[in-house]
Amino acid sequence: MEDGLRNMKNSARTVSHFRGAKFLHSLKLAVFLVIVAMATIVSSQEIQTSWTFNIPDISFISFSPKYTNTQNQRISLNFRTRNPNGLIFCHYLKDLDVKELKRINYQLCAELQYGVFVLKYQLMQYSDDGISIGKALNNNQWHHLEVFIDVSSGELTVKVDNETTVTSLKSYTRQEFTTLLDWTQHSSAIYFGGTDPDTLFSDTYPHFLGCMSDIQYETSDSKLVPVPVTMMEGVDQGCTDRCTNNPCHHGGSCINGYDQAVCDCFGTDYEGEFCSVLGPTTVTLRGYEWLTYSLHPYDKNILAESMRLSLEFKTSRGSGVLFYAVGGAPYHSHVTASVHAGKILVSVAIGDDDIEVEAGIAIDDYRWHNLTIVHEVRKVYVYLDGQENERDILDTNYHLTLDPKIFIGGGNNFVVTRGLQVTQNFVGCFKNIYINDVSVLYEMAKGSNRVKYNGGGSMQPHYSCKEVVNIPISFPTAASMLTLDSTNDMKDDFEIEFDFKTVRSEAVLLYLSLQDTDTAFEYNFGFVEVWIKAGQPHLKFVPSNLHPERTQNYTIPNLVNTNIWHSMHLAIKQGEAKLKVNGNSVSTSNTKRPLEIYSQIIVGYGYNSYKAHEGYVGCIRNLKINGQTMDALDLVQTSAASGLIIDGCNITDYCKGSRMCEHGGVCLSEWTDVACDCSETFYTGLACHFPKYKKTCDEYYQSGVNESGVMLVDLDGSGDLDPVHVRCHMGFEERYDFFGQTIVDHNFPSNTTVRASMMRDLKRLISYRLLGREELIRLTQESAFCRQKITYNCIHSTIDLGTKTWFKSASSELLDYIGTDNTSPGSCPCSLTASCTGEMCNCDNNTMTLQKDEGYNTVKHQLPITEVTILQDENPLTPGSANLTLGPLVCWGNSAQIPSTAVTFSSGSGYLISAPWKTGDIKVSFRTHHDTAIILYQTGTKSNINYFIVAVTSENTVKFYFRWGMKFLEVDIESPEPVSNGEWHQVSIETDVHNIRCMLDMTEKILDIPDNVPRIPLFSGILYVGGVPDTLKKDTVVADVVSIVGCMRGLAYNGKPVALSDLIDSSTQNVYKECMASCWPNPCRNGGKCLEKWGAHQCVCVNKWAHSGHNCEIDINTDAVTFQGTSTSYLHYILPVDSGLLDSTIIFNFRTFLRNTLLLYIHDHLNNFVLVQLQDSNKIIAKFNRYNLILQQTRQIDGYLDDGSWNQVVIDNADGYIKVIVNVDDEPSRNSYKKQSLDTYMQVPFTEEELVKPVRGSTVGEPGIHLYVGGVPLNMSTYTSMYGCIRGLKIGDTVFQLQKEAEKSDENVSHVCLDGCESSPCRNGGVCEEQWQDRRYTCDCAFSEYAGPTCNTEASGYFQGESILQYKYTPPKEALETRTERLELVFRVNPGATENMVLVFIYSERYWTHDFIIVYLDPHHGIYLNTNQGYSIHGVGKEGLFADGRPHQLLYRRNQGEMILTVRSENHRLFRNKTLSLDEEGIGRVTVSDNALDELDTIMIGGILNSQFGSIQDTDDYRDYLNFTGCMSEVTFYPVGDLPFALRPLKDLRDNQNSTGIATAYGPEIQGCSTKDAMAITTSTQPLTQKPSTLSPQLTFPPWNPGPAKTEYLGPPPTLPINKTSPAHTSMTTPSNSVSTARDISVGSHGRDKHDNKVIAIALCVVGFLLLVAIMVACVLVRLRRREEEKEKENAEKNQDIELKQPLNDVEEAISENRQNQNYLARLDEFSMVSAQLGARPVKRETTSTFKPPPSDSSYTYSSVPQSEDDDPTLTEQRFYNRKKNRPASSISEVLEEMERQRGNPDADPEDIETLGTRPLQSVAMETTPLTCDGIVLPPVEGTNVDNCQGAWDVHDQSSDLSTGEHHEDDVENDADNESDSPSPPPPAHVLHEYNGDSGYEAESKPDEEETLMIDSYHGTGSFQEEETPSEGVNDQCQVDMDDSPYLDSKNSNYVSENVTPSLKSETGSLGKESRSGSNSSAAEELPGKDSDKVINYGFPNTPVIDLNGPDFAPKKSSIVSNNMCDT
Question: pTM for this one?
Answer without folding.
Answer: 0.54
